[in-house]
Write the structure tokens for this entry.
Amino acid sequence: MFEVGRICMKTAGREAGRFCVIIGKDKEKGFVVVTGPKSVTKVRRRRCNLTHLEPTTFKIDIKENATDEERLEIFEKENIYEKLHIERISEIRKERHEKREEKIEKKEEKVAEIKEEIEEEKERKVKEHKEEKPKKMKKKEEGKTKHTAKKGEKKEKTKEK
């Protein structure tokens, strides 16, 4: 029942509930070597107790200690992803990445809008300030500012004395 190529579900440990493939028998009785492959099911290549595995009805034809690439090709050929309802990790990551990119774009758009509003506000304040500035300049030209008036009074007082 637990021969090379058998697809099993892990029932214990951190990888419980994930599918794996038996790729070899261990030297000790009661243990086998399993792997996901990691890029598909997140089960890394490791030794596993037979009591922690639940065999499925699916078996793939692979040689003992086959590489991840060989197993991935067989998964594709025999349509294992659909049979076991496994989504490829790379596809899930791609979808997550696209969602993150969309969020980032939305945030960048909001930031750009806020920057535009700030610039418009600055321009408005600058225009208001420029409009106020000529009034002050007129007063200075007329010599009616408080400071110049006091100086002028002092000069007149000193001349009178």
About this structure: DSSP finds five helices and five strands in the chain. The helical segments are 38-41, 68-77, 80-84, 89-142, 146-160. The CA atoms of residues 79 and 85 lie 10 Å apart.
